[in-house]
């Protein structure tokens, strides 16, 4: 068959000038196809040039991404910062990191939860060791917190829902706070994950915290770390990951599978979910008189796509 003709448009021509919708769509697709071909041809040409030059080829350009063009944040923590080290040695999580307390978590829900939220809480309890699920029946959070403190709970997790879908998570560190409020999305229960592994075992998992770089990020990262006991049981090969990317915290729960001495595979155990920090409050949960350390204000804070807070 003859080679397709190149689409030649007049230099000032715009596809949007075509009045007929179907014709306009067709021409746009042809134009996109041509752009793709040109891009591939340029890529091939560059690759041939690099092969021809061999060792003398210039280093590959680093692609521009939103992450590596991030706007500088003055609260980004230097690992050797003495002031931060002092703050962290005296903050609310210090007893946990000094091994004076053992995590004991209460997981509860909003009032009268539906099936999906209940199942999510049960699965979260298998991820976090020493956690207990309690179904709330009309009891205010302010009434629950003193009872938790009296029974030596170190953290309270509340899963909120809207129209049967889990959509919020409140994490309160006891007895003195702080309290973080997250928006929750993309919740996947175990049965909804493809190629999942067998049920998790009762071994203490490892915890991986990625990209929590600012002072606020450090506080949130320490909050997640203090949910899990100190010494992971590596024999269980389980790992819980909190990965922060563009201020979205992705949670995944995996198991390692050692195929040989050098090859390692992983299988997801679930559940999985995504969190976005809405506010960080000093002290325990108090919606009326609470003092907020940080609140996400979209119109003021989200002025640049390259500005991140965690």
TrEMBL record:
Positions of region (Disordered): 33-67
InterPro entries from the UniProt entry: Brix, IMP4/RPF1
Keywords of this entry: Ribosome biogenesis, rRNA processing
SUPFAM superfamilies: Class II aaRS ABD-related
BP terms from Gene Ontology: maturation of 5.8S rRNA; maturation of LSU-rRNA
Coiled coil residues, start to end: none
Gene3D superfamilies for this protein: Probable brix-domain ribosomal biogenesis protein
Annotated GO MF terms: rRNA primary transcript binding
Primary subcellular site in the record, as a coarse category: nucleus
The UniProt record lists the keyword Cell cycle: no
Superkingdom of the organism of origin: Eukaryota
Brix domain residues: 103-286
Gene Ontology CC terms, in alphabetical order: nucleolus; preribosome, large subunit precursor
Subcellular location: Nucleus, Nucleolus
Free-text function comment from the UniProt entry: May be required for ribosome biogenesis.
Protein name: Ribosome production factor 1
Organism: Scytalopus superciliaris
Gene: Rpf1
């Amino acid at each position: 068959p003859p080679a397709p003709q190149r689409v030649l448009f007049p230099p000032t021509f715009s596809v949007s000038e075509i009045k007929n919708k179907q014709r306009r769509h067709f021409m746009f697709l042809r134009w996109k196809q041509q752009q793709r071909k040109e891009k591939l041809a340029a890529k091939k040409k560059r690759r041939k040039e690099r092969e021809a030059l061999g060792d003398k080829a210039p280093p590959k350009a680093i692609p521009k991404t939103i992450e590596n063009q991030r706007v500088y944040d003055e609260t980004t923590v230097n690992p050797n910062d003495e002031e931060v080290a002092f703050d962290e040695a005296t903050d609310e999580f210090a007893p946990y990191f000094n091994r004076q307390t053992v995590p004991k978590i209460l997981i509860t829900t909003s009032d009268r939860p539906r099936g999906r939220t209940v199942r999510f809480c049960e699965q979260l309890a298998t991820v976090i060791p020493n956690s207990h699920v309690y179904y709330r029946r009309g009891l205010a959070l302010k009434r629950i917190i003193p009872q938790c403190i009296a029974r030596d709970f170190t953290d309270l997790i509340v899963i909120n829902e809207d129209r049967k879908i889990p959509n919020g998570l409140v994490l309160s560190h006891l007895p003195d706070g702080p309290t973080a409020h997250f928006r929750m999305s993309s919740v996947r229960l175990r049965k909804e994950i493809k190629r999942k592994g067998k049920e998790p075992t009762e071994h203490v998992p490892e915890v991986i915290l990625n990209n929590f770089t600012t002072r606020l990020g450090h506080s949130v990262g320490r909050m997640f770390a203090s949910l899990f006991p100190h010494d992971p049981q590596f024999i269980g090969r389980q790992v819980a990951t909190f990965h922060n990317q563009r201020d979205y915290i992705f949670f995944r729960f995996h198991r390692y599978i050692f195929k040989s001495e050098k090859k390692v595979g992983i299988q997801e155990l679930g559940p999985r979910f995504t969190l976005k920090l809405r506010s960080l409050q000093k002290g325990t949960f108090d919606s009326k008189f609470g003092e907020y350390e940080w609140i996400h204000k979209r119109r003021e804070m989200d002025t640049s796509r390259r500005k991140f807070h965690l």
